[in-house]
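Can you give me the bound-state structure? Components:
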Amino acid sequence: DGGITQSPKYLFRKEGQNVTLSCEQNLNHDAMYWYRQDPGQGLRLIYYSQIVNDFQKGDIAEGYSVSREKKESFPLTVTSAQKNPTAFYLCASSKGNSPLHFGNGTRLTVT
Amino acid sequence: GQQLNQSPQSMFIQEGEDVSMNCTSSSIFNTWLWYKQDPGEGPVLLIALYKAGELTSNGRLTAQFGITRKDSFLNISASIPSDVGIYFCAGQARNAGNNRKLIWGLGTSLGVNP
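Here's the bound-state model for the whole set.
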């Protein structure tokens, strides 16, 4: 079955460490997205990529970095520059302007 | 910036009751989407709307794209315990071009008492 796989489901890190969240899709979608979800704040766009080797900042890109070396993969690195990294991170993909298809998220806790 | 107001913020109903929630925007949209999110999972698309006045059903769910293009409604009939979750609306303004411009509501948390 096609879908989006985010791993790991839960991630714990010490403050000051960079951490990379994985997102893989086998839907043959061109576009991929990273969102952050905090209680009471809805979904906020971090980065998006419409094609391989190209990506754009979203609304809250500071402290994050991404790469898009393969169509199937869009890893997100949360750097030590991100002031409040603890959150639920959602990866999504879409074909053209069709509705987003989401993964099941990674909950990152930084202490 | 563009705003989406989603209401109610939360509701608790008895199993079997109907429920309605809505979203309103400060500007005209050409796409309305409704998603459901279970705890600890990613949102799942329920219904997509693309035309003003459009009324679309998906099982016990019905959603409408408001005539003014500034609102949308989601109705759930005969609720069951598995309807529990957070329901999100998302909209895309006219000429926005792509999903990067999706605007999200803050969600409606639904509880169902069996």
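A couple of observations. Residues 5 and 24 of chain A are 5 Å apart (CA to CA). The longest strand of chain A covers residues 42-51.
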